[in-house]
Specification:
Shape: elongated
Strand order of the largest sheet: 2-12-8-10-5
GO molecular function: endonuclease activity
Keywords: DNA-binding, Endonuclease, Hydrolase, Nuclease, Restriction system
Low-confidence stretches: none
Number of domains: 3
InterPro entries: Restrct_endonuc_typeI_TRD (IPR000055), Restrct_endonuc_typeI_TRD_sf (IPR044946), Type-I_RE_S_subunit (IPR051212)
Number of helices: 15
Radius of gyration: 27 Å
CATH topology of the largest domain: Adenine-n6-DNA-methyltransferase TaqI, Chain A, domain 2
Structural class: alpha+beta
Number of strands: 27
Organism: Mesorhizobium caraganae
Protein name: Restriction endonuclease subunit S
CATH superfamily of the largest domain: DNA methylase specificity domains
Distance between the termini: 30 Å
């Protein structure tokens, strides 16, 4: 049975009306509550920023707490209420929502709105609706501000939401509950796969670090400066990005978009910049020279594409005669992170200069026998490539399965919630 025919059967000819949110629920803006107010124990509290950084669509327990005397001054959140974010630096996070299912009464503060569902609305049905393109379009119409974007409780109340069978609250809630049940099943499956992926990543990291310690084998510590040279990139900006041009790797992409190695780049810059740039060759390892954390500085991606690519001036191309993937994998280990931390210049932006990077040590197998050393590097890379595909590849393994399930979920979510628009509903 198709999703559309299932929706038809679920509705069974009942009327669906688009109603303003304020007609079917009470919306009250929060007040007070800052992160400095949090305590280890006390009254459960929901901070607006946690809704798009910590929570999913529902929660039975809160991440934070406040003292009882402060809680008395804050907006109350009861079981079944929905807490909605009003404010963020980006429009995507505004309107994110959380249905609270805890037994203890909670509180929330400013920059959040408490939605108290009436007889026609199920809280979680609403939270799923806030993920749809329709809701995203509506909230944009009411958004105010540039650096900080806000959609007020008054404007949220104007947004239309589809209510099936509005003349029979009991039947309406039953239909909403069935839609929630279906979408919960998709969400639970994705959550299970994500938990499995997390476990596999921990296993992979342990095994990778174990392999690269070379216990019981002939190894030698060598500095990166001993086994290769560094070429610093040249500056380009995001304003230089184009659809078709010179392939580049920006330092920030190394720790946000790439894995241990790549054959393709995500970005390109204007062709006329060609003569002013510096390039990484196939086999070079591109290393981030700056980052917000020590872990991000020194992150590396092996470039194994056929052509040369340009690199940013806050990154380096490490040129050597070893297996590039081996070097990149070694740079992910806990041992390497500990080694590079000794040379990171800390500040608002953490930085690792060439002189410091050249002093960082790595373990080299069979250092006195080049052929044997490369054969061992190749063997280790072959093993780690399989783990890498399982845990990081969007083309195979668990990440691909999760991506497919998320696409399937989004398809059925929009299908189940794409009732006739208000302008075509029969009166």
């Amino acid at each position: 049975m198709s999703g559309l025919s299932y929706l038809d059967k679920l509705l069974d000819g009942v009327t669906v009306e688009w109603k303003a949110l304020g007609e079917v629920a009470e919306l009250v803006r929060g007040n007070g509550l800052q992160k400095k107010d949090f305590t280890e124990t006390g009254v459960p509290a929901i901070h607006y920023g946690e809704i798009y950084t910590y929570y999913g669509l529902s929660a039975t327990e809160t991440k934070s707490y406040v003292a009882p005397e402060l809680a008395r001054q804050l907006r109350k959140v009861n079981k079944g209420d929905v807490v909605i974010t009003n404010t963020s630096e980006n429009i995507e996070d505004v309107g994110k929502s959380l249905v609270y299912l805890g037994e203890r009464q909670a509180v929330t503060g400013g920059h959040a709105t408490v939605l108290r569902p009436g007889n026609y609305l199920l809280g979680k049905y609403f939270t799923y609706f806030t993920q749809t393109h329709r809701f995203a379009s509506d909230k944009r119409r009411y958004a105010k501000g540039t650096k900080v974007i806000d959609v007020s409780a008054t404007d949220l109340a104007k947004i239309l939401i589809p209510i099936p069978c509005p003349d029979s609250p009991k039947k309406s809630l039953a239909i909403q509950a069935e839609i929630v049940r279906i979408l919960d099943a998709f969400t639970e499956l994705t959550a299970e796969l994500t938990a499995e992926l997390t476990a596999r990543k921990k296993q992979y990291h342990y095994y990778r670090d174990h392999l690269l310690r070379f216990e019981g084998r002939e190894v030698e510590w060598k500095t990166l400066g001993d086994i290769g040279e560094f070429i610093r990139g040249k500056r380009f900006t995001k304003a230089d990005y184009v659809e078709d041009g010179i392939s580049v790797i920006h330092y920030g992409e190394i720790y946000t978009r790439y894995g241990a190695w790549t054959r393709e780049t995500f970005s390109k810059v204007r062709p006329e910049l060609g003569g002013s740039l510096r390039y990484a060759r196939s086999g070079d390892v591109v290393i981030a020279g700056v980052g917000e954390t020590v872990e991000d500085v020194g992150k590396a991606v092996a470039w194994i594409g056929e052509r040369d690519i340009a690199i940013h001036d806050d990154s380096y191309a490490f040129r050597h005669s070893m297996n590039p993937k081996f070097i990149s994998y070694a740079m992910q280990t806990a041992t390497f992170i500990s080694e590079k931390a000794k040379h990171v210049s800390r500040g608002k932006v953490n930085r690792l200069l060439i002189d410091g990077m050249a002093k960082v040590r790595v373990l080299i197998p069979y250092p006195d026998d080049v052929r044997k050393s490369l054969a061992e590097q190749d063997r280790i890379v072959a093993v780690l490539d399989k783990f890498e595909a399982l845990t990081n590849s969007l083309y195979e393994g668990l990440p691909r399965e999760i991506s497919l399930r998320q696409q399937q979920y989004a398809y059925y979510r929009d299908l189940l919630l794409s009732f006739p628009k208000p302008e075509v509903v029969a009166v």
